[in-house]
């Protein structure tokens, strides 16, 4: 698959890179990185960062490293490492050589720390976490210096060495940078560089019992890798002075940090901690539940890499936080699926139709177009026989004026097949319609009448004896509110979960061409939406997820909000 996207906007990061290249900065080189912490699965927000970092490197002939910022052994796991690499590749990106790990730099980082100690710029502190908080000050008052700040270099070197050797307990001592306790920026108030943690690390095992803080790791890892443009989200803006301080005092290569706004969408949550809570507390079936905004969830649901890449490009890159309408994502998705999905006939809620004038035991093979958007996709045969299924909602015994589909005495077209007329309605003892008796007109084979007779509706259908059984899963947003974090006092975001986010249709019928469809196959069920075959499928029964309906709410949202929208949501709008 090609991972080309057409650049839609000359956003500010692109401009910075172009200028740097023009000015010969870094010898015109572009090196970026995607630096997740392996403490959860990737979500759609990460897709934005992946597309930016890998995309820009590709666009400017540079390279993008896959790097894990694995500084917190307690929360990290190889399961996450593997899933992250799989998701990045699925999105259509790859990296040169092996993935990199900040933990591979632990030795170098330790040496860096020793240098700062030697230079009198770091000290071992014995304050407890609680005492450190008390010393930290407030936004309007300066903090107090630690009494241990005046330790000699010699004593600090000795203590730090012994921290590393495991002589002290967790929480007993830390290594801190001597920056400025009076700085208005809390990150600069003698931040902790190393903490004691006797945890097993997923890569370094039990080698270390001290671990560098994220802030003492991230910037230096970029530096070690020669990252030219260190692209990160806005919450790191006020960490930048600290990163700069470390890089300057260590006298090492200084990457340029550029911050952009996180991608946020309405109706979803993009905090890994909260996504983990949904999984752990069984609100969903797993990280890859098709309702999850994780990349593996979106993949299972049927979202395509191309749609996600186009979405990220369409949204653009902003300096201020805003929320994007989920309808725009689905618009990009439909745009891609429309071009690439084979059309299939399927009936979700079957109503039996007997064609009384069709010979028993016979079958007619009719030609059906695979994709009207793509002639090269060709045609296929769909079988027609005496007993068929149509959608229950395509029939009304007593139809109102605007209902043009099947009704007693009325003629409609069956897609690719024949005109049929409903003559008789069969009901059970409770008065529910169980079966329709219809006649077909053999002259209308293919769906056109030779005498120019018109019908007002074309219905999808499936031949009963040929149909494949399927369980179809229909989805709504996982949360009821546009902002899932908007909660009453004392409640958390799970109080906004949508009890109807999943509807299971147990006995859907699908045309036989889907017989050997493998998990991940994406199709359009005509008139019903785009669907994707699930890995839960068995020999006897397909499991199928509805990816998205056919109706595009984004077009309507755009009309209501006026032209010129670039995906930023100006007004709170509910996609229908
Ligand atoms: P958490 O969910 O715990 O806040 P995180 O989403 O920041 O964590 P990381 O693993 O640190 O998770 O993210 C990896 C990279 O992806 C970082 O560079 C981060 O800035 C970026 N990123 C994360 N979330 C988004 C988002 N919503 N939009 C754009 N980039 C994001
Ligand atoms: Mg983070």
Walkthrough of the structure:
The protein has 576 residues and is of the alpha/beta class. It folds into three domains: 254 residues, HUPs (Rossmann fold), CATH 3.40.50.620; 152 residues, Ribosomal Protein L25, Chain P, CATH 2.40.240.10; 121 residues, Ribosomal Protein L25, Chain P (Beta Barrel). Helix content is 24%, strand content 23%. It is built from 13 helices and 27 strands. The strands form seven sheets. It has a seven-stranded mixed β-sheet, with helices on one face. It has a seven-stranded mixed β-sheet with strand order 21-18-19-20-14-17-22, with no helix packed on it. Strands 4-5-6-7 form a four-stranded antiparallel β-sheet, covered by helices on one side. Helix 7 crosses helix 8. The longest helix has 16 residues. The two termini are 32 Å apart. The C terminus is likely disordered. Bound molecules: adenosine-5'-triphosphate (ATP) and magnesium ion. The site of adenosine-5'-triphosphate has 15 residues, from helix 2, strand 8 and helix 9.
């Amino acid at each position: 698959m090609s991972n080309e996207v057409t650049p839609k906007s000359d956003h500010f990061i692109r401009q910075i890179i172009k200028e740097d290249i023009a000015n010969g900065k870094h010898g015109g080189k572009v090196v970026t990185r995607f630096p997740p912490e392996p403490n959860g699965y990737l979500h759609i927000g990460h897709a934005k960062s992946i597309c930016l970092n890998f995309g820009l490197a590709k666009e400017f002939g540079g390279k993008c490293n896959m790097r894990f910022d694995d500084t917190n052994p307690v929360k990290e796991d190889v399961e996450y490492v593997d899933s992250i690499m799989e998701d990045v590749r699925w999105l259509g990106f790859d990296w040169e050589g092996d993935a990199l790990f900040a933990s591979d730099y632990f030795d170098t980082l330790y040496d860096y720390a020793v240098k700062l100690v030697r230079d009198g710029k770091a000290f071992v502190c014995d304050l407890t976490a609680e005492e450190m908080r008390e010393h930290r000050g407030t936004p309007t008052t300066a903090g107090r210096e630690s009494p241990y700040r005046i330790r000699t270099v010699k004593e600090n070197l000795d203590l730090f060495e012994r921290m590393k050797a495991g002589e002290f307990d967790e929480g007993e001592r830390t290594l801190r940078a001597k920056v400025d306790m009076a700085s208005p920026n809390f990150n600069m108030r003698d931040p902790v560089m190393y903490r004691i943690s006797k945890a097993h690390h997923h890569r370094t095992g039990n080698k270390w019992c001290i671990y560098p803080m994220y802030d003492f790791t991230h910037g230096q890892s970029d530096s070690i890798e020669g990252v030219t443009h260190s692209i990160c989200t806005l919450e790191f803006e006020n960490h930048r002075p600290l990163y700069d301080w470390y890089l300057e005092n260590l006298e090492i290569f200084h990457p340029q940090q550029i911050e952009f706004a996180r991608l946020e969408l309405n109706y979803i949550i993009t905090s890994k901690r909260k996504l983990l809570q949904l999984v752990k507390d069984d609100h969903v079936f797993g990280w890859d539940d098709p309702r999850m905004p994780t990349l593996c969830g979106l993949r299972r649901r049927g979202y395509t890499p191309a749609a996600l890449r186009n979405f990220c490009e369409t949204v653009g890159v902003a300096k201020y936080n805003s929320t994007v309408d989920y309808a725009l994502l689905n618009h990009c998705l439909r745009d891609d699926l429309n071009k690439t999905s084979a059309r299939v006939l399927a009936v979700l809620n079957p109503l039996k139709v007997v064609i009384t004038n069709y010979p028993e035991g016979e079958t007619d093979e009719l030609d059906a177009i695979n994709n009207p958007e793509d002639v090269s996709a060709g045609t296929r045969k769909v079988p027609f026989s005496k007993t068929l299924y149509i959608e229950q909602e395509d029939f009304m015994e007593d139809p109102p004026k605007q209902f043009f589909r099947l009704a007693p005495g009325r003629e409609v077209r069956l897609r690719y097949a024949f005109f049929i007329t409903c003559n008789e309605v069969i009901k059970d003892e409770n008065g529910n319609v169980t079966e329709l008796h219809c006649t077909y007109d053999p002259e209308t084979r293919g769906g056109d009448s030779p005498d120019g007779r018109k019908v007002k509706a074309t219905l999808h259908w499936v031949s009963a004896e040929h149909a494949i059984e399927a369980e179809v899963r229909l989805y709504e947003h996982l949360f009821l509110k546009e902002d899932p974090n908007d909660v009453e006092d004392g409640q958390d975001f799970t109080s906004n979960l949508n009890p109807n986010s999943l509807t299971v249709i147990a006995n859907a019928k699908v045309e036989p061409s889907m017989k050997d469809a493998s998990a991940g196959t994406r199709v359009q069920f005509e008139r019903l939406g785009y669907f994707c075959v699930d890995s839960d499928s068995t020999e006897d029964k397909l499991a199928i997820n509805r990816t998205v309906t056919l109706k595009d709410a984004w077009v309507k949202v755009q009309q209501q909000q006026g032209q010129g929208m670039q995906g930023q949501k100006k007004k709170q709008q509910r996609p229908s």
